[in-house]
Specification:
The complex is a heterodimer of chains A (334) and B (440). The model of chain A has no long low-confidence stretch (mean pLDDT 85). Chain A has a two-stranded antiparallel sheet. Chain A has 14 helices and 2 strands. In chain A, 53% of the residues are buried. In chain A, a hairpin with a 5-residue loop joins strand 1 and strand 2. With 334 residues, chain A is mainly alpha-helical. The N and C termini of chain A lie far apart (41 Å). Chain A is globular. In chain B, the strands form 4 sheets. In chain B, strands 1-2 form a two-stranded antiparallel sheet. Chain B has a two-stranded antiparallel sheet with strand order 3-6. Chain B is globular, with a radius of gyration of 23 Å. In chain B, strand 7 and strand 8 form a beta hairpin. Chain B has 14 helices and 8 strands. The C terminus of chain B is likely disordered. The chains are: A mainly alpha (334), B mainly alpha (440). At the A-B interface, helix 3, helix 4, helix 5, helix 6 and helix 8 of A face helix 2, helix 3 and helix 14 of B.
Chain lengths: 334, 440
C-alpha cells in the first residue's frame, strides 16, 4: 500500500503542476498581454478553463491530505520552516480563486471588474512564484531544523538564489503551459497568433530561468548537475524534454494544435522527473546534510492501508467522472 | 499580541469564516435541486430562472468555501504542527475521504453550472444533486474529524506515545454521530432562514413578488423542518457531552459546584474570578434532566475538575445561551409558519410573518457560530481532549500576530465583497427575469 500512496502523492503533485499550473499561467499570460487584447484573452481563457476550474485545484488538496495523513513529519516540517512562503502562496490562492469567480459572477459589469482583473493577474503570478520557491526550497538543502535564530530558521530556508530561481522558472513554465493550451482553444487567426507569440516568449523565459536555476545551484553548492546529467533517468528525461520541444514547435508550424498540450505536459513532467529522480524518495533535503525521506517517515501501517484504500476507491469514483467532464466540454468545440 | 492567542484567534477566524461558506455550499444545492425538479416537471419558466439565480450564488459561495478550505488544510500545520505530527495519521481518514467527496462535488458543479442545454436534462439535474450529496458528505466527514478531537479514539496513549493506531475506529469515535447530526441540521436551519429571509424582504418590497415567493417557499420548508428537529438533536448532544466531557457541560451551564439535582441557569453574568453567576434564571432540577434524563441525577460541576483543566467558563456559557436562545426562537417561527401553511392562508397577506423571517436572516448563522464556540472553547485547554494541550501544539515560529492581522484583513475584505456581490445579484433579479413576470 505504501507504493500506492506514494504513487498517488506524486501523481497529485504532478497533476497540480500541470493543471493548476496552466491555470496560474492563464493569469500570468493575461498579465503580459497588452491592454487592448486583454478582454479577448480573458474570454478564450474563461471558455477554456471555466468548467474544470475548481477540479484543477483539488489536486493540491489531495496532495496535502496525503502528506498530513501518511507523512505527517514531512508536512509539519514544511509547515514550520516554510511557514512564510506557504502563507504567501495561500494568500495568492485565496485571492485568485475568488477573483476569478467574482469577475464572472458579478451581476453588474462595471469598475469592479478592474479590481478583480488586477487581483487575478498579480495573484496568479505570485502563487506560481511561491509554489516554485517552495518546491525549490525542499531540495535546496537550506532548511535548517536546528537553527536558533529567526532568520536562519524561517527566512533563509526559502529566500535563497536557488529557490527564487526555481520560482521564476515555474512562473515561465506555467505561462508556457497556458499559452500552449490556449492555442488549441481558439479558432480565430489573430488570437492564435497572439497565443503562439506568448508561448514563444514563455519558452524563452523558461530557458533563461532554467539556466539561472543551474547557475544558482552552482552558487549554492547544490549538486543539480549531478542529479540531472549523471543519472540515466535524469539524462534521458532531459533529452526527451528537449526532443519534445523541437517536435512541439515543428507541429505548431504545421498547424496541429490539440496535440501540443500533450507534448507540453509531457515536457514539464520530464523536467520534474529529471530534477527529482536522483534524490527520490527523499522529500526534504536539510542543511545538516540529512534528508527527510518518504519511506522513512511513512505513517503507521493501518493508516497507510486505509489511506491507500480511500485513494483507490476515490479514483474509481473520480476519474471517470472527471474524464467525462473534460471530454464533454472539449467536444462542444468541435 | 501573544503568539499563542494569535494562533488561536487566526484558527477561530478561519474556521468561523469557512463554516458559513461551506454550509451554504452544502445546503443551497438542495434548494436548487427542488426548484430544478419543479422546472423539469411543470415547465414553469420561473423555476428555471430561480435555479439559475441560485446556482450563481452557489458558485460564488463554493469558490470562497473551497479556497478557505484549502487554507485550513494548510493552517492545521502552519499553526499546530505538533498536533498534526501525532494526529494526522490517526484522524486523517475522514479527511482523505473528504478529499474524494469534495473533488466529486467540484466536478459535479462544473457539469451543473456549464451544463445548461448541453447535457441530458435529467443527467443535468442529477449532477446538481451530486453537488448537494457530496457536499453534505464532506461536511459530515470534517465534523467527524473534529469529533475525534473531542472524543479521541483509535489509539492507545502509552507514556506519551501514540500506539496501535486504527484510523477507522478513530473516524467512528463516540462523538461523530451526534456532532454531525447537529451540524447538518444547523446548516439547513441557518442557510434556510437566511435564504428565505432575503426573499421575504424582496416580497415585502414588492419586487418580482411571484419569483421571490416561489424561492421563499422552498427555502422556508427546509429551514423550518430542520429547526423543528434541531432541539431533539441538541438533547442527544447534551446527554453525550455530559457523559464524555463533563468540564464542557459544566462550562456551558456555568455550573461551578456539583449539585444533585442541578438547576438549569438561563442567562446570567459569569464572574470567573469569584466563580459565581449573577442574575441568571434558575430552573430547578432541569439540568439534571437534560444531562442525564433524570430529575434527581447529580451533575458534575467544575469543582470536581482540576483548575488547570477548566475551559473558559464565561465565553462557553454565553455562547451556549445565544445558541439555545436563537434555536428556541427559530423553533417558534417554524411552528408559526407551519400553522399558517396548515390554515392555507395566503402568505403574501401575512406581512408580519415575512417580517419575522427578514429578522431571522442572520440568526441561524449566529447560532451556528455560537455552537462552534461552545464546542471549541469548551474543549480547551485541550486540543486532543485529555491527551494534548493546545498550548503544547502551537508552532514555534514567532510573529504569528502579524499573520493573524493579515488574514483578518483578507477575511474581512472577502466578506465585504461577497455581501456586495450578493446584493448586486438580488438587485439584478428584476432586470434579468422581468420577462418571466409578464408571462405569468
Amino acid at each position: 500500500m505504501e507504493q500506492v500512496v506514494i504513487t498517488f502523492l506524486c501523481m497529485a503533485i504532478l497533476l497540480y503542476f500541470l493543471l493548476g499550473g496552466a491555470d496560474f499561467g492563464a493569469g500570468i499570460i493575461e498579465l503580459f498581454t497588452s491592454t487592448k487584447n486583454r478582454s479577448r484573452t480573458r474570454k478564450t481563457m474563461y471558455h477554456a478553463i471555466g468548467p474544470v476550474w475548481e477540479a484543477n485545484h483539488m489536486w493540491l488538496i489531495i496532495a496535502i491530505v496525503i502528506l498530513f495523513v501518511g507523512f505527517p513529519f514531512i508536512y509539519t516540517t514544511m509547515s514550520v520552516y516554510l511557514h512564510i512562503p506557504l502563507a504567501i502562496m495561500l494568500i495568492g490562492i485565496i485571492a485568485r480563486g475568488t477573483a476569478f469567480v467574482f469577475r464572472h459572477y458579478d451581476a453588474v459589469k462595471d469598475d469592479m471588474q478592474w479590481l478583480y482583473n488586477r487581483i487575478f493577474r498579480y495573484s496568479s503570478f505570485i502563487t506560481a512564484l511561491f509554489l516554485g520557491i517552495i518546491a525549490g526550497s525542499l531540495i535546496s538543502g537550506h532548511i535548517d531544523t536546528q537553527a536558533s535564530d529567526f532568520y536562519t530558521a524561517y527566512i533563509s530556508g526559502w529566500l535563497n538564489w536557488f529557490s527564487v530561481a526555481v520560482g521564476f522558472f515555474t512562473v515561465a513554465l506555467c505561462g508556457f503551459l497556458a499559452a500552449i493550451y490556449l492555442i488549441g482553444e481558439t479558432k480565430e487567426y489573430h488570437d492564435k497568433r497572439r497565443f503562439i507569440k506568448k508561448a514563444e516568449f514563455m519558452n524563452i523565459a523558461a530557458v533563461v530561468f532554467g539556466a539561472m536555476v543551474f547557475m544558482a545551484a552552482q552558487r549554492d553548492q547544490i549538486p543539480l548537475i549531478d542529479w540531472v546529467f549523471k543519472s540515466k533517468v535524469g539524462l534521458s528525461a532531459i533529452i526527451l524534454a528537449s526532443l519534445s520541444l523541437v517536435l512541439l514547435w515543428y507541429l505548431l508550424i504545421k498547424g496541429k494544435t490539440k496535440i501540443l498540450r500533450i507534448l507540453a505536459g509531457f515536457q514539464v513532467t520530464m523536467i520534474l522527473l529529471a530534477i527529482s529522480y536522483a534524490h527520490f524518495p527523499n522529500f526534504i533535503r536539510l542543511k545538516s546534510g540529512n534528508a527527510i525521506s518518504l519511506l522513512e517517515t511513512v505513517g503507521p501501517e493501518k493508516t497507510i492501508y486505509s489511506l491507500g484504500l480511500a485513494l483507490l476507491l476515490g479514483s474509481v469514483l473520480i476519474l471517470p467522472f472527471l474524464g467525462y467532464l473534460f471530454y464533454k466540454f472539449q467536444k462542444k468545440e468541435e | 499580541m501573544d503568539d499563542f492567542i494569535a494562533a488561536r484567534s487566526q484558527m477561530a477566524l478561519s474556521l468561523g469564516f469557512h463554516i458559513i461558506f461551506s454550509c451554504i455550499g452544502m445546503v443551497m444545492p438542495f434548494f436548487m435541486a427542488v426548484s430544478h425538479y419543479k422546472w423539469l416537471k411543470t415547465g414553469e419558466e420561473v423555476y428555471k430562472n430561480l435555479t439559475k439565480a441560485w446556482s450563481k450564488g452557489v458558485a460564488i459561495f463554493f469558490a470562497t468555501g473551497a479556497v478557505s478550505g484549502t487554507m485550513l488544510s494548510f493552517e492545521l500545520g502552519l499553526l499546530w504542527p505538533k498536533f498534526m505530527d501525532h494526529a494526522g495519521p490517526i484522524f486523517g481518514m475522514p479527511f482523505s475521504l473528504e478529499g474524494t467527496a469534495f473533488f466529486i462535488e467540484a466536478i459535479a458543479l462544473g457539469f451543473f453550472l456549464y451544463g445548461w442545454n448541453k447535457l441530458n436534462k435529467w443527467f443535468h439535474w442529477f449532477t446538481g444533486m451530486v453537488v448537494g450529496v457530496s457536499g453534505l458528505a464532506s461536511g459530515i466527514l470534517v465534523v467527524a474529524a473534529n469529533a475525534w478531537m473531542n472524543s479521541p479514539a483509535g489509539f492507545d496513549f502509552v507514556n506519551g506515545q501514540y500506539l496501535n493506531i486504527d484510523p477507522i475506529q478513530a473516524m467512528f469515535n463516540k462523538a461523530w454521530f451526534t456532532q454531525a447530526l447537529h451540524m447538518c441540521l444547523a446548516a439547513f436551519t441557518a442557510t434556510g432562514f437566511a435564504v428565505a429571509g432575503v426573499h421575504a424582504l424582496m416580497i415585502l418590497r414588492n419586487r418580482n413578488a411571484y419569483f421571490h415567493l416561489k424561492a421563499f417557499k422552498i427555502a422556508a420548508v427546509f429551514a423550518c423542518i430542520a429547526a423543528l428537529l434541531q432541539p431533539l438533536s441538541g438533547d442527544i448532544s447534551a446527554k453525550d457531552v455530559a457523559k464524555r466531557q463533563p468540564a464542557k457541560l459544566a462550562a456551558m451551564e456555568a455550573l461551578y459546584k456539583t449539585e444533585k439535582p442541578a438547576p438549569l441557569l438561563v442567562g446570567g453574568i459569569v464572574n470567573e474570578k469569584d466563580k459565581t453567576v449573577k442574575g441568571a434564571i434558575k430552573i430547578p432540577a432541569a439540568l439534571s434532566f437534560l444531562a442525564h434524563g433524570d430529575f434527581k441525577a447529580e451533575v458534575k460541576g467544575l469543582d470536581q475538575i482540576p483548575e488547570n483543566d477548566h475551559p473558559p467558563v464565561a465565553i462557553t456559557h454565553y455562547a451556549f445561551q445565544i445558541m439555545v436562545g436563537i434555536g428556541t426562537l427559530l423553533l417558534l417561527v417554524s411552528l408559526t409558519y407551519f400553522f399558517i401553511l396548515f390554515k392555507k392562508k395566503p402568505l403574501i397577506e401575512k406581512r408580519w410573518l415575512l417580517k419575522l423571517f427578514v429578522f431571522a436572516i442572520p440568526l441561524g448563522y449566529l447560532a451556528l457560530e455560537a455552537g462552534w464556540v461552545v464546542t471549541e472553547v469548551g474543549r480547551q485547554p485541550w486540543i486532543i481532549y485529555g491527551i494534548m494541550r493546545t498550548k503544547d501544539a502551537v508552532t514555534p515560529m514567532p510573529g504569528i500576530a502579524y499573520s493573524f492581522y493579515i488574514f483578518s484583513a483578507i477575511y474581512v475584505s472577502l466578506s465585504i465583497i461577497v455581501t456586495f456581490l450578493l446584493y448586486r445579484q438580488i438587485k439584478m433579479v428584476p432586470v434579468l427575469y422581468n420577462k418571466t413576470e409578464q408571462n405569468n
